[in-house]
């Protein structure tokens, strides 16, 4: 690779990293504000105008707090687990395109760090590696609530990972590629949600369960498990779990927008430099929907969660693949 | 550049493999194995087989090893202090280790010998780039190797049925203890 290409790639990595961390930091504030509005409360409004500096205050607080390691904990794994949870969440962004391309300094810059032809599988793989962080944290804490939370979350993630993988196969079949750029470009006229409505609903449910969002946030059910797998964590280690969780929320919403809502394509003619904006709007809509769901639905019971995942979600996902294949063969 | 990366990855893979067998704590062994899988996945990537590399992470590190670690956690296995393995005495275990390692070494010697005799080395084929994609792999699996592929599928199905049968027989008394629905599902 030539030197300017190296510089471009490294700059892209740094920029994507900062964009993701900023979005995640403000996402916490947005979630608190939106939930407050839904529950007729004011929400955080003390730090800065309208509470806009709250993320900065949170960051300073979390970074200066001591990391407490329980006496009986497995020290190495305890310290490693939050890192294992955060790193795959951030790695997923290396293959997620944030728009089409822009022209800057006389060269065409593609708005993705890399476009491998197995990008979608790579993201699924990263989400399956993220499970380690959660249950290692729960196990190494040597605390029964943390262990219960860890076991619950690994069982849940293993179960729903399968449905999530199955739900996107319809899209892969229609686009004929695992590459996210190819999948988005296949939707330039009609978004795949029109052809794959069932796939979209399945993907959304499974993704919410995979990232432990309400109504599937059993790993940290407060009344029964204190705080679940991160009960014993404090300071920056706790913040890493928190960041990883919100980064995953942004990831699945972006994937949802890219796979089903047409990515950066809009029904009206638009210049390519505006493509990140359209994508951002679609992602923001999905994120709002996720927060809305959290403000609306109560939590599942654990056996309901397992029965739903294996007896409803998975069979419907398999049926969806079958019907998609059948229609594709008949139409051809 | 590529050689340095290869040597580093091999070092990680071999060190990980040694840690798998030398660790006394099952959970550290399992995690070392995850490290081995990760290193092999990057090796696949260097052999221009990205599909295989991602599947290695997705299936082995992300699904199979997760289940292993899950079971270790559920049974709360700590350090193996008993020194017992399948109830064999130490002498027998040493003998087994020597015999199995000898077999493995013989296999490597045979492979190396064949390479020297036939002059064929382990270099990837010229069209390796195209072979590593999902499309190429899929075409091979579902056209050229359809029957063996389906047979492997049936073999796995048999294994699953067997596993269910085993848990059923031992699980009778456990059902009430485990709390029903979620365990069967």
Model regions low in confidence, pLDDT < 50 over at least 5 residues of chain B: 173-185
Q: Which pair of chains forms the biggest interface, and how many residues does each contribute?
A: A-B, 30 and 25 residues
Mean of pLDDT of chain B: 78
End-to-end separation of chain A in angstroms reads 42 Å
Organism (chain B): Eiseniibacteriota bacterium
Keywords (chain B): Cell membrane, Membrane, NAD, Quinone, Transmembrane, Transmembrane helix
Catalytic activity (chain B): a quinone + NADH + 5 H(+)(in) = a quinol + NAD(+) + 4 H(+)(out)
Pfam families (chain B): Oxidored_q3
Features:
heterodimer; A: 332 residues; mainly alpha; two-stranded antiparallel sheet; globular; B: 185 residues; Four Helix Bundle (Hemerythrin (Met), subunit A); 9 helices; disordered C terminus; Nuo/plastoQ_OxRdtase_6_NuoJ (chain B); cell membrane (chain B); NADH-quinone oxidoreductase subunit J (chain B); transmembrane helix (chain B); NAD (chain B)
How would you characterize the overall build of this protein?
The complex is a heterodimer of chains A (332) and B (185). Chain A has one domain. In chain A, strands 1-2 form a two-stranded antiparallel ribbon. Chain A is globular. The model of chain A has no long low-confidence stretch (mean pLDDT 83). Chain A is an all-alpha fold and 332 residues long. The longest helix of chain A has 36 residues. In chain A, helix 4 runs antiparallel to helix 5. With 185 residues, chain B is mainly alpha-helical. Chain B has one domain: NADH-ubiquinone/plastoquinone oxidoreductase chain 6, subunit NuoJ (Four Helix Bundle (Hemerythrin (Met), subunit A), Up-down Bundle). Helix content of chain B is 79%, strand content 0%. Chain B is built from 9 helices and no strands. In chain B, helix 1 packs antiparallel against helix 2 and helix 2 packs antiparallel against helix 3. The radius of gyration of chain B is 21 Å and the shape is globular. At the A-B interface, helix 4, helix 5 and helix 12 of A face helix 2 and helix 3 of B. Chain B: It is an enzyme of class 7 (translocase). Chain B: Belongs to the complex I subunit 6 family. Chain B: GO terms for molecular function: NADH dehydrogenase (ubiquinone) activity; quinone binding. Chain B: It catalyses: a quinone + NADH + 5 H(+)(in) = a quinol + NAD(+) + 4 H(+)(out). Chain B: Its EC number is 7.1.1.-.
């Amino acid at each position: 690779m030539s030197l300017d290409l190296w510089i471009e790639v490294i700059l892209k990595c740094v920029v994507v990293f900062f964009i993701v961390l900023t979005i995640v930091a403000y996402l916490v504030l947005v979630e608190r504000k939106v939930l407050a509005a839904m529950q007729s409360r004011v929400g955080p409004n003390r730090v800065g105008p309208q509470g806009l500096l709250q993320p900065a205050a949170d960051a300073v607080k979390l970074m200066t707090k001591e990391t407490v390691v329980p006496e009986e904990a497995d020290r190495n794994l305890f310290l490693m687990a939050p890192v294992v949870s955060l790193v795959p969440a951030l790695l997923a962004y290396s293959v997620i395109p944030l728009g089409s391309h822009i022209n800057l300094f006389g060269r065409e810059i593609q708005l993705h760090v890399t476009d491998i032809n197995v990008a979608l599988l790579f993201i699924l793989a990263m989400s399956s590696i993220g499970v380690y962080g959660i249950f290692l944290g729960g196990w190494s804490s040597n605390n029964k609530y943390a262990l219960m939370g860890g076991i619950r979350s690994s069982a849940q993630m293993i179960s729903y990972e399968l449905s999530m993988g199955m739900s996107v196969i319809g899209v892969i079949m229609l686009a004929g590629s695992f590459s996210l750029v190819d999948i988005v470009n296949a939707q330039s006229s009609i978004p795949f949600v029109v052809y794959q409505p069932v796939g979209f609903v399945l993907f959304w449910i499974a993704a919410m369960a995979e990232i432990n969002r309400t109504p599937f946030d059993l790993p940290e059910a407060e009344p029964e498990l204190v705080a679940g797998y991160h009960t014993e964590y404090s300071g920056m280690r706790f913040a890493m779990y928190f960041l990883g969780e919100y980064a995953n929320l942004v990831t699945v919403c972006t994937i949802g927008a890219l796979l089903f809502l047409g990515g950066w394509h809009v029904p009206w003619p638009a210049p390519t430099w505006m493509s990140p904006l359209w994508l951002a709007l679609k992602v923001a809509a999905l994120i709002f929907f996720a927060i809305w769901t959290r403000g609306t639905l109560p939590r599942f019971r654990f056996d309901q969660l397992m029965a739903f995942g294996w007896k409803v979600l998975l069979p419907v996902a398999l049926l969806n693949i079958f019907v998609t294949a059948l229609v594709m063969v008949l139409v051809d | 550049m590529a050689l340095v990366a290869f040597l580093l990855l091999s070092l990680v893979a071999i060190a990980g493999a040694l840690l798998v067998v030398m660790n006394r704590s099952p959970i550290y062994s399992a995690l070392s194995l995850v490290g081995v899988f990760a290193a092999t996945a990057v090796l696949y990537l260097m052999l221009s087989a990205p599909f295989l590399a991602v599947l290695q992470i997705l299936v082995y590190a992300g699904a199979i090893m997760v289940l292993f670690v899950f079971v270790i956690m559920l049974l709360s296995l700590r350090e193996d202090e008993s020194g017992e393995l399948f109830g064999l005495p130490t002498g027998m275990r040493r003998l087994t280790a020597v015999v199995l390692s000898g077999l493995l070494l013989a296999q490597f010697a045979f492979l190396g010998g064949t390479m020297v005799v036939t002059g064929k080395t382990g270099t990837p084929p010229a069209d390796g780039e195209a072979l590593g994609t999902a499309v190429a792999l899929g075409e091979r699996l579902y056209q050229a190797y359809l029957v063996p592929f389906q047979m492997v599928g049936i073999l796995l199905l048999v294994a699953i049925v067997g596993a269910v049968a085993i848990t059923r027989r031992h699980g009778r008394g456990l059902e009430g203890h485990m709390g029903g629905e979620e365990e069967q599902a």
